[in-house]
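**User:** Once you have settled down, spend some time on the protein underneath, comparing sequence with structure tokens, and judge whether sequence predicts the tokens.
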Amino acid sequence: THNLPPGLEYLNQLDRIIIHQQVELLEAILGTETSSKYEIKNHLGQRVYFAIEENDCFDRNLCSPIRSFTIRIADNMGREVIRVIRPLRCNSCWFPCFLQELEVQSPPGTTAGYVVQNWDPFLPKFTIQNQSKEDVLKIIGPYATCGCFEDVDFEVKALNEMTTIGKISKYWSGFVNNVFTNTANFGIQVPVDLDVRMKAVMIGACFLIDLMFFENSLDGL
């Protein structure tokens, strides 16, 4: 573990990660987009990290689902251990040359890997890459992500897209929560022996999937 990026030793023994978006009262009452805050927990519900999104009011309210952001993830001592950077890019299958690409750094300033959207006319598809931009894993979502009263699963697959090794799940959390707030609850399941840098990239992928497919308050019904 002495070779791990500082702070990522918490992920070393985890095969399940829970991401819970905290409710913002102003956003819930007025419908105004505020900076998102998250708690990242283990399967026992114990907080491992907390995260906050940084961008400006223009991005949050006018570019909402495609907005650029930097998410800083800190451990319980307040030490920033992961940084997730998303530039402003296109969110349409009709523009395959400018699709989503997100960088995950750990420690901040050092690239751990990337999440790259792949063009597909029907399914949400992404590639997980390492720091050298070599393909490591695939993420494939369902045709419909509305998830009528049920969880929505994005499968984590080997590069051949035949073998499923895990999933990123958007948990359905009830009618009131989904209609009146944008709060999201996600679960990440991956092999326990997956490189911790790739686990950090999976957390970044989860944030990207949330904004791309579940940002609107009616999503997830």
Summary: Residues 174 and 189 are 22 Å apart (CA to CA). Residues 15-217 form one domain. Residues 175-182, 217-221 have pLDDT under 50 and may be disordered.
